[in-house]
Design brief:
alpha/beta; UDP N-Acetylglucosamine Acyltransferase, domain 1; 3 domains; 6-stranded mixed β-sheet; 14 helices; 41% helix; disordered N terminus; Serine_acetyltransferase; EC 2.3.1.30; serine O-acetyltransferase activity; transferase
Length: 373
């Protein structure tokens, strides 16, 4: 591809392209835009903001796998309509929405453009990334299906899917280079050899780490700070396997080649070292089963509230057996002002330290408080 230096010409071509596309869709010829995209207006710095567009038009190396010409993609249609509405409501975003969405023919093309511009750096050029990402997506039906089902953590997930295909093709150095860029840009480290299903949600996503031999099923939700790692004592297949519909809370650490059953919930801050039964809820460091889920896929409802009832029930049983074991947990708090029943429960819950969820039940005052009163 050759670089096009005339930015006004690029702006004119892009404007005409959008007008033609909308005219075909609506059956009515649309007027030429008269805003920043018009040839006579102030030049928009496409080459700096959207470097791919300043370097020519994408041409796939071979025939891609496409949907039939007469088929409609309701998801892509909805995305385009929303982009048009937002461009009218927020004119400052019109150029961004146009270059990222409205100037493209399909979801795959728009996604390749966005990812290429997000992952580029001085040595990984946007045009080269665009060609690679576009060809991978358009030739892989699995990715085409997944990009319409995945939810949050979207850019990092789709970048991983491209790297995963490259890894399986034997292009491991390029796949690892993409992994490095994904970690730098999105703060999420997913090894390209790991296997991840579809309908995935990475809520917030920051700090998520997925090891080389990890497997994540379909419809799995992971909060921020989740680690699917190895124990350091194993070789080969050494990372966790998450069943369909599992819900993994914030800052959970799962180590070793263990299985997390379908529909299981792991409460925030847990350290999981053993297999987790299907549809169970585990908590603690190390994690233990404290109850069972009524829902088939807790990852879809994201109902973390159930853990409070289960933790309260578990804490009551613990207190009934040996209430003296609770005081060391209470005394670990550094701030004595927090050592009251209500504030203690809130502080422990917010800190994502799972075992402190045991304190959500009614507790006696601390020994120091008993003496003071």
């Amino acid at each position: 591809m050759t670089r096009l230096s005339d930015e006004s010409w690029v702006s004119s071509v892009l404007s005409k392209r959008l007008s033609i596309q909308e005219g075909k869709e609506d059956g009515v010829k649309e007027e030429e835009p008269t805003n920043a995209f018009a040839p006579g207006s102030t030049h928009f710095p496409f080459e700096k903001v959207f470097p791919v567009y300043a370097m020519g038009v994408l041409k796939p190396e071979s025939d891609p796998v496409l949907l039939p010409d007469d088929s409609r993609d309701p998801i892509w249609d909805a995305v385009r309509e929303e982009a048009k509405i937002e461009a009218e409501k927020e004119p400052i975003l019109s150029s961004f929405l146009y270059a990222s969405i409205l100037s493209h023919d399909c979801l795959e093309q728009a996604l390749a453009f966005v990812l290429a511009n997000r992952l580029q750096n001085p040595t990984l050029l946007a045009t080269q990334l665009l060609d690679t990402i576009y060809n991978v997506i358009m030739k892989d039906r699995g990715i085409q299906h997944s990009i319409r089902l995945d939810m949050q953590g979207y850019h990092s997930l789709q970048s991983y899917r491209v790297a995963h295909v490259l890894w399986n093709q034997g292009r491991k150095v390029l796949a690892l280079a993409l992994q490095s860029r994904i970690s730098e840009v999105f703060g999420i480290d997913i090894h390209p050899a790991s296997r991840i299903g579809e309908g995935i949600l990475l809520d917030h996503g920051t700090g998520v780490v997925v090891g080389e031999t990890a497997v994540i099923g379909n419809r799995v939700s992971l909060m921020h700070g989740v680690t699917l790692g190895g124990t350091g004592k194993e070789i080969g297949d050494r990372h966790p396997k998450l069943g369909d519909g599992a819900l993994i809370g914030a800052c959970v650490i799962i180590l070793g080649n263990i299985k997390i059953g379908e529909g299981a919930m792991i409460a925030a801050g847990s350290l999981v070292l053993k297999d987790v039964p299907p549809h169970s809820m585990v908590a603690g460091t190390p994690a233990k089963v404290i109850g069972y889920m009524d829902e088939k896929d807790p990852s879809l409802t994201m109902n973390h509230g159930q853990k409070h009832l289960l933790a309260k029930k578990y804490a009551s049983n613990m207190l009934a057996k040996n209430s003296s074991n609770m005081w060391p947990i209470l005394l670990e708090m550094e701030d004595p002002k927090l050592r009251t029943r209500g504030k203690m429960a809130r502080a422990l819950e917010d800190s994502c330290r799972l075992r402190l969820g045991l304190l959500l039940c009614q507790c006696k005052p601390l020994p120091q408080q008993e003496k003071a009163h």
